Amino acid sequence: MPAARDPIGVLDSGLGGLSVLKALREELPNEQFLYCADCAHTPWGDKPESFIVERTRAIVHFLLRKQAKAVVLACNTATAAAADILRKELSIPIIGIEPAVKPAAAQTRTGVIGVIATRRTTESARYLSLLRRFAGNVKVVTVAAPGLMECVERGDFNSETTRELLLKYLTPIKDAGADKLVLGCTHYPFLSEAISEIMGPEVELLEPGKPVARVVRMRLQKAGLLNPSSSDIFRCTYFVAGAEKHLPTLKLLVPNQKRDAAFRPNIFELPA
Ligand code: DGL
Question: Is residue 45 lining ligand 1, measured as CB closer than 6 Å?
Fold first, then answer.
């Protein structure tokens, strides 16, 4: 049985989920976290659905062995492929992430929204159902953006190569007149600066971190699993497949590292 003092597991194909971890930390400062990044197998977004389901399942079970009381799939691609399957198999709360099509469609003034995400997400039944349910009255320009997550994994947030790739993916969205851009992959918030330079300041970027963190709080509260202890030190243990190679970017991206005098990232190899 999970206990309130147990940690929350967070997973992604790589380091993108750290954008979600940052929001989780702000919303749930008393909680401890375990973060798993499957960096040695990225990108998930170009792989078959069965591969993503198997990797996600293996990492969730790894987190369960580490006493995770809930798991956040901080990955749109994993949510689209595996969330429903894992919820049937497991009894702990599994919280997923979907592209923020609903708020973007509700708030657009131009009637046009853009979505960038991995190919696996844009082609998923879950995404198509999201469009059917919430975006019937607006024009949605969906662009699959292979290669972008790799820029983030390399720590290449605003280089010439990254900007060229972004220009290619964002031009059709900009030309269509979108005023909302949904960042449908958890890696993309780390490219926000470069994205805004191309889209212009009037286009709002929607990322899921904060809304998802609020959902996690609600789910834990409902299950009586909110950690009652109070702590001002952010406690997260990182498990990264191929850790050595990804250490420089990981250290750049771990949330609010500088503000925590006592904070040392505790990094281990994620078993294959
Ligand atoms: N960060 C992931 C997402 O939100 C997946 C990136 C990838 O591995 O392709 O979709």
Answer: yes
